[in-house]
Structure formats: structure tokens, C-alpha cells
Amino acid sequence: MSDNQKQTIFSGVQPSGKLTLGNYLGAIRNFPILQEEYNCIYCVVDMHAITVHQDPAALRRATLEVLAQYIACGLDPEKSILFIQSHVPAHAELAWVLNCFTMFGEASRMTQFKDKSAKHTDNVNVGLFTYPVLMAADILLYQANLVPVGVDQSQHIEICRDIAARFNNTHPGTFTMPTGYFPKAGEGAKVMSLADPAKKMSKSDENENGFILLMDKPEDIMRKFKRAVTDSDARIVMDPQEKPGVSNLIQIYALATGKTVAEVEAEFVGRGYGDFKPAVGEAVVELLRPIRERTEDLLKNKDYLEQVYTEGAQKAAYVARKTLDKVYRKVGFVKR
Ligand code: TRP
Q1: 147: which strand partners?
Q2: ∠29-31-33 over CA atoms, to 5°?
Q3: Is 217 a catalytic residue?
Q4: Which of 36, 77, 187, 279 has its CA 20 to 30 A from that of 56?
Q5: Residue in 137, 91, 76 with CA at minimum distance from that of residue 317
């Protein structure tokens, strides 16, 4: 398929620098495969990040860390566009126009805004409020067809579609209507916390035994798996209702080793958690080892990273500019 027949995938990632095993198994793992079949564009959303307090040095470091980790996970800068949001001014420019096509009421209904403003009561800023509008600009600038995100972002995809539809209604044929691409069950969609299998694995868990970071050292990974919460019935069988902790570990082990759930169950028949938990830990250590090592190498090679994000921003800006020009013309701005 030639590049212009391919559909476009766009995704934004927060520069937290801390990607978890859940992020990897739920989404990032599939990125290298997707880049063969789609035009893939991945953006580190540093502009979204400053809607909450950031330490400037930490933000800069985290932005590069995410980029390095994406490359280490198999994204190829020759095949996919990798860039930093603030390097492409069209994002801020389109966001302004889209602000004027977003209703106060619909933005007020966003649960992420409500949650974040409850959490950061000292900093309920307008950027937090228009966060979904900037996100819509990210997506619509590239005429993206598919947007891989976690389910927590589904409301933001909906408002993006509503804004696109409203704009297209007044100015037909401007934006491609994007669709959320949510990981399907069985694709490792949802990895749960090791400390509380009722919760999704998240780097913001206050119990750091609950999550595995891609950059965790082998001994930390082993310790966290050995402490993983299970149950008193020592059988290793998949039963998400009755045995959520064990089921989570089975899923992780299956994904890390490429085995099926049935194969994992068969492997551990008659064996206990004392065997199983370290086995999961070791499988994850081996899965993550090359990613961590490659990331560390890349972070030592700042020139290479700079080349990647500079070229990425050039390619992104070219596509984005075309959309922005069209939008500016449609709303009646004089051509500059
Ligand atoms: N809001 C997304 C998140 O927190 C990040 C994001 C910003 C994004 N812009 C995007 C995701 C565009 C997909 C497409 O995960």
C-alpha cells in the first residue's frame, strides 16, 4: 500500500517519563506492528503537561525519556513521525480556532477536568479546562482516522468528534472524523495493579509495589512480583472474578512469554505461588531488559534524539500546516 492510501494513526503521550508495564502490554507493544500498516504519528504532549504544575528541568528530561522509550520499544523514526507537541505551533493555533467551536457547557462536562480540578485545587487554570480542545487540535490537524488511547480518554475522543462535526457542519469537508482505537480484551488491554488487582496498573498508585516501570531494575521487578497480591487458594488458574490477582499475573506471564493462558495454566498445574510469582518476574525482566538498555543508550546519545525530534517536527509541521491553512481560509482569515 502506498503511504497516501494508508490510514493515519495519531496518538499523544504525556511526558511523565514513567511508562508502565501496563502501558507497554496494553498499547505500546503493538505500535511497531501498526507502523507497517498505517501512517503513524506519535506526539509527546508537553503543552498538555503544563496544565498541572511541572518542574521545568524534570519536564524537559521526561519529554526526552518518553521519546527514547518509544524508540526503544520499536518505533522507527524512519517509518513513524515522532515529535514534540510544542515544536509544531499549528497545535496551539488550531486549538484557538477550535476553542471558538467548543461550547462552555460541553467542556464543563469532562470528567477529567472535574477530577483534575478537584485534585489540584490551587491551580484550576483555564488550560486545564480547554485541555480537550488542544487534544482535538492534535488529532484533527493530521486528519487522523484512528486514535489509540486508554478507555479513560474515550470522553475526550467523543468531544473531539463533536467539535469536528460542528466545524464540518459549518465548513464541510474540513476534518476527517477520527475514531478511538481502544485495545481489545485479550490484547493485554488492561493490566491490573500488583498490589490491588481491583485497580488498573498506574504509575500514580501511591503504593509503588503496584506498578512496574519499563525502566525498573531487575531486582525491583522481582521484588514487586514476589509481593504481588494473590489469594489463599494456591491454584494457578484464570478466574478474574474469584482470583483477580492470580489472573492478572497469568495474563502478564502469557503476554511476556507469548504463551496462551491454557499453556500457562498447564505449566503450573500442581505448583504454587512460590514457583509462579518469580517465574512471572523473570519473564518480565527479560521482556523489559532490551527496552531499558536501549533507552539508556539513547538517552546518552542526545544528538541522535535531537535529530529524531527535529526531523519529526518538520514532517509533522508540513501535514499540520496544510490543515491549518484550510481552516484559516474557511473561517475567513486573510491569507498571509
Ligand atoms: N489526553 C491524553 C492522555 O492523557 C494525551 C493526549 C493528548 C492525546 N493529545 C492526544 C492522546 C491526542 C491521543 C491523541 O492520555
Answers
A1: 180
A2: 95
A3: no
A4: 77
A5: 91
Which residue CA neighbors atom 7 of ligand 1 most closely? 12
The pLDDT confidence band at residue 157, using thresholds 50, 70 and 90, is very high
Residue nearest to atom 10 of ligand 1 (CA): 12
Complete DSSP assignment for 301-312: -HHHHHHHHHHH
pLDDT band at 211 (very low <50, low <70, confident <90, very high): very high
pLDDT tens-digit readout, 254-297: 999 999 999 999 999 999 999 999 999 999 999 999 999 999 99
CA of 9 to the centre of ligand 1 (A): 12
Burial of 5 (0-12, 13-18, 19+ CB in 10 A): exposed
Pocket of ligand 1 (CB under 6 A): 10-12, 14, 45, 48, 135, 138-139, 147, 149, 153, 156
Task: Give pLDDT, residue 189.
Answer: 56
pLDDT at residue 152, rounded to an integer: 86
Residue 330 annotated in active site: no
**Ligand 1 centroid distance, CA of 266 (Å):** 40
Q: What distance in Å separates the CA atoms of residue 212 and residue 208, rounded to the nearest whole number?
A: 8
132-147 pLDDT tens trace: 999 999 999 999 999 9
The full set of domains in the chain, from first to last, is: 8-187+302-331 (3.40.50.620), 208-295 (1.10.240.10)
Give the whole-angstrom CA distance, residue 33 versus residue 94: 30
Establish whether 116 is a catalytic residue: yes
Substitution candidate for ligand 1 out of 34, 111, 116, 135 with most atoms within 8 A of CB: 135
Catalytic residue among 79, 203, 315, 326: 203
